[in-house]
Write a structure and sequence with these properties.
The complex is a heterodimer of chains A (about 300) and B (about 550). Chain A has nine helices and ten strands. Chain A is α/β, with parallel strands linked by helices and about 300 residues long. Chain B has three domains: about 5-105, no CATH class; about 180-340 and about 525-539, Glycogen Phosphorylase B (Rossmann fold), CATH 3.40.50.2000; about 360-520, Glycogen Phosphorylase B (Rossmann fold, 3-Layer(aba) Sandwich). In chain B, helix 2 (about 120-135) packs across helix 3 (about 135-155) and helix 10 (about 375-390) crosses helix 14. The two termini of chain B are about 20 Å apart. Classes of the chains: A alpha/beta (about 300), B alpha/beta (about 550).
């Protein structure tokens, strides 16, 4: 029987976190461990986690000294799941409520797809819905040219090239072979970089019968037209990370296309010039920024 | 005794005749090993060995092409002569015995542990040694960079795999022998972790009722050839290159003299590379190998094993790291990889002892052979660093001996450590050193899994270790230090200083280490796995 380590990364969101943990612990396919990475929360998350750990010995709390962002948190949590000896790690944010059978469907869908295609698949992700039941704008994977291949065989799964870190299942070998997400990205584009990196061997699969609800404030995708003084810090990471990825992992043309897309987005949204300048500075930073992945340790 | 492969016709000086003591036990075992080889390779023939002994340090020549020459170097002494006849048959009607075959076997000189350490010859070697000895730590920094490069390169390369054998029966002229046996491939019969395990499996095979046929392929004096585990085994210490045509003849001899039920390869390149042929001839014989360590500088046996994976039925690995490497990185079928650890090689039956007394200076220990792999100079450098910066009284113990012994003594005085660092020989028990220690340091640059770490856990001593091999399986996360020398010293010194000022933290680390040791010890045990395997082969 394969073992699964669920990994939840949290930062100052204790109200939603309890709901997430209840959903994860209550899965029809029981995860062997639930690793919660606390990114140095200051809102009393630690007390809640201590309480969970006391009640359920599957809960493993990893408290970090500083906020390492989603990227650092996922890298830490996935490494811990790997160290615990898990055959799969299943990762999500602290505002993701998986349906009771989400994990079971993911594991089964992944295995079925592997046997149908006769090859190992590096990950499986869920269908992400918004709280009102509509599709979550921010969490839609990119598909392969032959995305319907499994559907034609009667499976409710789509072949994908990348996805966001909201309910993704990775088999152990993916981490052995490709390492961990780039913690240096801190936030944004870490999920795309990682899933694109591991898609090199074979595509991932989105299992449509595995459904999770993403309880984000507003159901809106990422768009450079939405930059404001309040959220520009996030876009700065996004600009640097994607610029770095397009240039160092793809090519100069992809880089140029990204810069053009960003420029058009900013212009379309009428973003003030000082903010545009800040983002372009980050693109320049991305030219030199090229972190390398860490690999997890084999412990058990 | 195993079923003989040959019968003795006449001898002089080899066995306990009128002149006991010309050949010692080890030399006699080597001669018998050579006789086994020829008896199996040339069935039915009669041979005369002229037995030579070389000067100290020279290695045996037992089965290679040189043995057919009846001329030898001036420094070789003749110490024995023996005529024997092979009792092996490989075809239904064994041909007429030809005339006697004369062979010259050289048992070499007094046993010497072969090491790659001083082998680079010429001016280049002299320069390298000079740099190595005058600046060991700086030299090591360069070595680690080289390791990084090779490590990085290995990451991007996938070794090719030999094609599988598609037939389920090889054509043969004669049925197998009657005596159930296991064919073992071993590196050499001298000290090493893999060899220690190999010797144990030889014993397990005997206990299961199988005759061990032990082939080695490395030049060595084989000091372990006289160990009791090899009583009743057919030992064949090969020396290379074998004469053309004899490789298959030898293996054919083995297959027809014995009912070979399985093949177990322990770090033996020669046997690994003959597995495809063996599978072609006898696809029914199960093949298992045992892997110990990921040698990232040489590729090592793990990569040979991966190459031959299609003709190996089970890979036994002793660490989770190797399991992950084979399954995750090299795409070896999950069901073919069996993790079974050697954890209880030493921890068995040992009760935890109380930690060292709180009074007296804080004691930092190094336990291990003084060899390049263990990097004793790094420990000495760390000691010098701590002597200057430690927040309290501190003393050091280095427990061991080995080829770098001179360097260890020299560095101790050069670094001004004579008054705080004690060097202990291997004649003293490790348990006492551990009982006196507050922390153990492992500075190795590569390791499989250090058994000393288990002993330390049992003795209540936290271990600060370089993060190499499978050490992460046993050592507390915070106490794993980078492999590069300067970061290693910095991190280790910091952690040890913390232990001195914060005993509570030391206890926390020790608890984590014990937890890891226990979880690791709960993994499947290699001994029972192999015992079951051999019993299965017996049925």
């Amino acid at each position: 029987m394969s073992t699964v380590a669920a990994v939840v990364v949290t930062y100052n969101r204790k109200d939603k976190l309890t709901k997430v943990l209840d959903h994860v612990l209550g899965q029809s396919l029981r995860p062997s461990w639930v690793v919660v990475v606390d990114n140095a929360s200051t809102d009393g998350t630690a007390d809640i986690l201590a309480d969970y750990a006391k009640r359920d010995d599957r809960v493993v709390v990893v408290s970090l000294d500083s906020n390492t962002g989603g990227a650092g948190g996922f890298a830490t949590g996935m490494a811990r799941g790997y160290e615990l000896g898990a055959d799969f790690v299943w990762i999500m944010d602290d505002d993701c409520y998986p349906n009771a059978d989400a994990l079971e469907e993911l594991v089964n869908g992944h295995a079925k797809a592997e046997s149908t295609l006769g090859t190992q698949l590096p990950y499986a992700c869920s269908l992400v819905k918004f709280i009102d039941g509509s599709i979550c704008e921010m969490n839609n994977p990119g598909t392969t040219w032959d995305w319907g291949r499994l559907i034609s065989k009667g499976e409710q799964s789509v072949l994908v090239t990348h996805c966001s870190f909201v309910s993704v299942l990775f088999p152990r070998w993916t981490l052995t072979r490709h390492g961990l997400p780039l913690k240096e990205y801190f936030i944004w584009f870490d999920d795309q970089e990682y899933t694109l990196r591991i898609t090199k061997d074979a595509p991932g699969v989105q299992v449509l019968t595995s459904v999770v609800v993403h309880d984000m404030g507003v159901n809106r995708g990422v768009n450079f037209g939405d930059v404001t003084p309040a959220n520009v810090w996030k876009f700065e990471y996004g600009a640097r990370n994607e610029a770095s990825f397009r240039l160092h992992h793809e090519n100069a043309v992809a880089f140029a296309k990204f810069v053009l897309r960003m420029f058009q987005g900013l212009r379309g949204g009428g973003v003030p010039w000082p903010l545009r300048v800040r983002l372009f500075k980050k693109v320049i930073e991305g030219v030199k920024f090229n972190p390398k992945p860490d690999f997890p340790r084999s412990v058990l | 005794m195993p079923p003989a492969t040959f019968e003795l016709v006449d001898e002089s000086g080899v066995f306990d005749g009128e002149q006991p003591g010309i050949l010692d036990d080890r030399e006699r075992a080597l001669v018998i090993g050579a006789a086994n080889y020829y008896a199996l390779t040339m069935p039915g023939q009669t041979f005369r060995f002229t037995v030579l002994r070389g000067p100290s340090g020279s290695l045996p020549s037992l089965t290679d092409e040189e043995t057919s020459q009846i001329e030898w170097a001036d420094d070789r002494q003749v110490v024995g002569s023996m005529v024997f006849r092979s009792v092996v048959h490989t075809t239904r009607s064994s041909g007429e015995a030809e005339a006697m075959i004369d062979l010259t076997v050289d048992v070499g000189g007094a046993e010497q542990i072969a090491t790659a350490y001083n082998q680079l010859p010429g001016v280049l070697g002299a320069v390298r040694r000079a740099v190595r000895f005058s600046a060991p730590v700086q030299f090591d920094a360069l070595r680690q960079f080289r390791t990084d490069v090779i490590h990085w390169r290995n990451r991007s390369e996938q070794p090719s795999k030999a094609s599988p054998v598609l037939i389920d029966r090889g054509a043969s002229a004669v049925g197998p022998g009657k005596v159930p046996a296991v064919l073992f491939g071993i590196h050499w019969l001298e000290l090493g972790g893999a060899e220690r395990w190999a010797v144990e499996t030889v014993q397990l095979a005997k206990e299961a009722g199988l005759v061990p046929i032990v082939v080695t392929d490395r030049p060595s004096s084989h000091p372990w050839i006289t160990r009791p585990e090899f009583d009743g085994a057919v030992v064949v210490p090969l020396t290379m290159p074998l004469p053309p045509g004899q490789e298959s003849a030898f293996l054919n001899g083995v297959l027809s003299a014995f009912d070979v039920r399985g093949v177990h390869v322990h770090h033996c390149t020669w046997l690994y590379e003959r597995l495809p042929w063996l599978k072609a001839v006898r696809p029914d014989i199960p093949v298992v190998d045992s892997l110990h360590i990921l040698e990232y500088r040489t590729g090592g046996f793990v990569d040979i094993s991966v190459r031959m994976s299609n003709v190996i039925d089970k890979h036994h690995v002793i660490s989770p790291q190797l399991r992950d490497y084979l399954i995750g990185k090299q795409d070896v079928d999950k069901d073919k990889v069996a993790l079974a650890t050697l954890a209880n090689l030493t921890v068995r039956g040992e009760a935890p002892e109380p930690a060292a007394a709180a009074d007296g200076p804080f004691t930092v220990a190094f336990v291990g052979r003084f060899t390049q792999q263990k990097r004793p100079y790094l420990f000495l450098k760390l000691a010098a660093e701590l002597k200057g910066s430690a927040p309290g009284d501190i003393r050091f113990i280095m427990h061991g001996d080995g080829e770098l012994s001179g360097e260890v003594h020299g560095l101790r005085s050069r670094l001004g450590l004579a008054d705080v660092l004690e060097i202990r020989g291997p004649d003293q028990p490790v348990s006492r050193t551990l009982a006196e220690s507050d922390v153990l340091v492992i500075s190795s640059d590569n390791e499989g899994l250090t058994l000393t770490s288990f002993e330390a856990s049992a003795a209540g001593v936290p271990v600060v270790s370089a993060d190499v091999g499978s050490q992460a399986s046993l050592i507390a996360d915070d106490l794993l230090c980078p492999r590069h020398p300067y970061p290693f010293i910095r991190t280790a010194a910091d952690r040890i200083a913390t232990m001195m000022t914060d005993p509570q933290q030391r206890e926390t680390w020790l608890a984590e280490q014990r937890e890891k040791s226990e979880a690791f010890a709960a993994l499947p045990d290699a001994r029972s796995m192999v015992r079951d395997l051999y019993q299965g082969w017996m049925q």
